[in-house]
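RECORD TYPE: inverse folding
INPUT: C-alpha cells
STRUCTURE:
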C-alpha cells in the first residue's frame, strides 16, 4: 500500500518517515530503522512501486484464509507487528535460546529463529492442533532446523483440559482463543471469534519440564495464562535468568498485578514496553550481589 511519500507497513507501530528517511541521514537513511524487507529503498522511495511487481518478504508463511488478525497481518506486512518483531529480535543475538509461549502461526518464532541462527534454539509452544500444524509448516517452509515446535500449553502443573479451538473455515481470530476460562459462544462471537463444533484435548506442562540449562528470552502471549506460565517456570527462571516479554491484558485493563508481583518476587523488575505496545510488559532480572 502506498500512502503519500511512504508505504503503510513501514510506518506501523510508531515509526515515522521523517525519523528514518530525512536527507541529513545520508543516502541510506537512518540505519536504526531498517531490518529484513523494511529497507531504505522500500520505505523511502518517492514513487509507488510498479503495481504488477511483487515485493519479496523476508519469510514465507501459511496462514488460515479467514484469519482476521495474525494471518491478515502476515499477508500484509510479513509479520504480526513490525515494531514488536524488531524489538524482540533486538533482545537476542546469535547463539541464544528462546521460548515462544503462545507461538500461534510463528510470526515471531520464525524471525527470532533467523536471528539466533543455527547456533541458537527456539522452542515454540502452541496448544491448538490446527494452528500448531501451520506453525510447524511455517518453520519447515523457512528451513529452520533450530526450532522445536511443541503441541502443548505451558502452565503451572501437568494437566489435561478440553477447550474449543476456533473454526477456521470462516472469519475468526484464532490468536484470541483461550485454553482456560474460555468465553461463552455468545461472548466469543461479539469479538469476531467463532468456536469449532467440538472441544479438543490439550496437554498443559510446566516449562521446568524441559530442563533447559540456558534460556535468554521468554516471550509469553498466552491469553490470560501468563501467571500460570511463570509459576511453572520457577526453576528455569532461577537457573537461567532470561528476559521476559509478556502480554498481560489483565494487568493493563483490569489492574491485576498478580503476574507482576509473582515475577518481581522471583527477582525481576517489570515495566510497560511503551505506548505503541498496548498490553506488553518487559521484565528484566535484577542484578544480585
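DESIGNED SEQUENCE:
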Amino acid at each position: 500500500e502506498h500512502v503519500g511519500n511512504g508505504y503503510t507497513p513501514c510506518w506501523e507501530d510508531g515509526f515515522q518517515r521523517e525519523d528514518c528517511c530525512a536527507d541529513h541521514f545520508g543516502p541510506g537513511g537512518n540505519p536504526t530503522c531498517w531490518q529484513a524487507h523494511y529497507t531504505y529503498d522500500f520505505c523511502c522511495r518517492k514513487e509507488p512501486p510498479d503495481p504488477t511487481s511483487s515485493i519479496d518478504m523476508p519469510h514465507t508463511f501459511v496462514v488460515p484464509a479467514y484469519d482476521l488478525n495474525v494471518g491478515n497481518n502476515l499477508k500484509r506486512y510479513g509479520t504480526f507487528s513490525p515494531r514488536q518483531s524488531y524489538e524482540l529480535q533486538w533482545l537476542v543475538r546469535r547463539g541464544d535460546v528462546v521460548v515462544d509461549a503462545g507461538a500461534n502461526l510463528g510470526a515471531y518464532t520464525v524471525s527470532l529463529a533467523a536471528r539466533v541462527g543455527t547456533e541458537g534454539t527456539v522452542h515454540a509452544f502452541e496448544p491448538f492442533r490446527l494452528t500448531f500444524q501451520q506453525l510447524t509448516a511455517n518453520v519447515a517452509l523457512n528451513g529452520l532446523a533450530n526450532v522445536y515446535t511443541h503441541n502443548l500449553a505451558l502452565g503451572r502443573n501437568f494437566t489435561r483440559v478440553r477447550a474449543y479451538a476456533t473454526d477456521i473455515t470462516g472469519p475468526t481470530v484464532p490468536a484470541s482463543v483461550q485454553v482456560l476460562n474460555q468465553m461463552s459462544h455468545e461472548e466469543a462471537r461479539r469479538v469476531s471469534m467463532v468456536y469449532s463444533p467440538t472441544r479438543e484435548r490439550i496437554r498443559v506442562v510446566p516449562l521446568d519440564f524441559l530442563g533447559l540449562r540456558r534460556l535468554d528470552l521468554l516471550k509469553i502471549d498466552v491469553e490470560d495464562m501468563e501467571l500460570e506460565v511463570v509459576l511453572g517456570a520457577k526453576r528455569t527462571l532461577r537457573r537461567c535468568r532470561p528476559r521476559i516479554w509478556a502480554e498481560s491484558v489483565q494487568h493493563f485493563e483490569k489492574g491485576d498485578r498478580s503476574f507482576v508481583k509473582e515475577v518481581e518476587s522471583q527477582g525481576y523488575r517489570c515495566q510497560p514496553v511503551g505506548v505503541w505496545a498496548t498490553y506488553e510488559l518487559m521484565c528484566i532480572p535484577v542484578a544480585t550481589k
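NOTES: Confidence is low (pLDDT under 50) at residues 1-8, 48-56.
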